Amino acid sequence: MQAASEYDLLILGGGCAGLSLALRLAESDYAGRVGIVEPRREYDDDRSWCFWAPDAHPLTGLVSCRWHRWQLSQRHGALTTRAAAGASYQYVNSLDFYDRALDSIHASRHIELLQGEAAERVYRLNGHLMVDTAKATLRSRWIVDTRPPASEPLAQSTLFQCFHGRVVSLAENSPAAFDPDAVELMTDMQTDPHGFRFSYVLPFDRRRALVEVTRFSRHPIARAQLDEELLELLHRRQWRPASFEREEAAVLPMGLPSASPEPMPGHVRAGTGGGALRAASGYGFLRIQRWATQCCASLVQDGPPLPQPAEPARQAWMDRLFLRVLRDQPEQAPRLFERMFQRVPGPALLRFLGDQASALDCLRLVTALPARPFLKSLVQIQRRDGSQLT
Ligand SMILES: Cc1cc2nc3c(=O)[nH]c(=O)nc-3n(C[C@H](O)[C@H](O)[C@H](O)COP(=O)(O)OP(=O)(O)OC[C@H]3O[C@@H](n4cnc5c(N)ncnc54)[C@H](O)[C@@H]3O)c2cc1C
């Protein structure tokens, strides 16, 4: 009989990536014994996952809100509103996702969630992969590691996307209400000594929305500062809150140096620590879902787990250059985003944002944007360190 601490697959981290894989394994023919090591004891509604997608797709059941129009504006500038036929910006509530995954995991006889445990050490012993937690030593054939990136590579990110938001319910006498038909993707775009900033608003109905302040900055920005800016935004837009339901905040790495996808044979990285977040946007939810589907398919066929796949080279190069422009010339950011959304045809833009861009789509993007800031950054890169972008 197999000892309690032996697994065919250990998943380190039961967040978005770990649970996405476990959910697929629970709903597949995979018969191996799976353990998920997760420090948190309780799951909260801690994030709002959004992405562009066709109106119908495999995750449709988890989408609780969708918007067919999205808006951008520079501070004091006119509003740009865009739409694309058949596609929408969609919202998955993290608690709905966690509940769905946990239900499937608990119903499965071969998947075990080890909650309240953290992986402290991963190593190889006598041909086996071993994981030490404070309570036990676990042994496994395969490891999928979705733990957050270590602090050292994190500190080397090109930029940090820092945001703080609150789900706001408006008072009856609020002078202004939300527009439930359009998401404010990047409004009030501006720059200041900390870099580029904008507002992000997901209106669930006229009286309730997630309102966020976002900054792309060279250094993490204190949450207290972002919260102050958020309250100022609510005041300026005349959204008078009756109550705040919950808060959501993060400091996401943009342009994280690439980690080894397979630190040891059989031990692969996925999720944010595996490079899942798009360098220039910080979006990762759909990438993680695609990876989970592919990784599950490999395991079901008795193959190895797959790491988060590397980004297509052309797109990675473009994103890294874009990120360098945002970092070195933040004053250009409002104009660049506005031009991108105004001039690139909707379907091509959505393919680019959704990692599905063709060479022609990339060309459309390049021709829509002013060349000068990109040339300037390329020259700076060559002069300063002669370094490669990827
Ligand atoms: C607030 C927020 C909003 C976001 N919104 C979007 C969005 O709208 N669209 C989008 O595409 N992307 C979004 N992202 C980016 C990305 O999709 C998410 O960060 C996503 O959760 C990344 O998945 P992950 O599994 O890599 O990390 P997580 O979901 O953070 O999971 C990592 C897990 O590892 C666990 N862990 C930590 N230490 C250990 C340890 N020592 N041992 C074992 N486990 C450990 C953690 O407890 C956690 O459960 C958002 C991120 C945040 C933080």
Describe this structure in words.
The chain has 390 residues and is of the alpha/beta class. It is 31% helix and 32% strand. The protein is built from ten helices and 17 strands. The strands form three sheets. Strands 1, 2, 8, 9, 10, 11 and 17 form a seven-stranded mixed β-sheet that branches. Strands 6-5-13-14-15-12-16 form a seven-stranded mixed β-sheet, with helices on both faces. Strand 10 and strand 11 form a beta hairpin. Helix 1 packs across helix 2 and helix 8 packs across helix 9. The radius of gyration is 22 Å and the shape is globular. It binds flavin-adenine dinucleotide. The site of flavin-adenine dinucleotide has 33 residues, from helix 1, strand 2, strand 3, strand 16 and helix 5.
| Binned strand content | 25-35%
**Low-pLDDT stretches:** none
- State the end-to-end CA separation: 48 Å
H/I helix tally: 10
Bound molecules: flavin-adenine dinucleotide
Radius of gyration: 22 Å
- N-to-C SSE string, H for helix and E for strand: EHEEEEEEHEEEEHEEEEHEEHHHHHH
Largest sheet: 7 strands, mixed
Mean pLDDT metric? 92
| Strand runs, count | 17
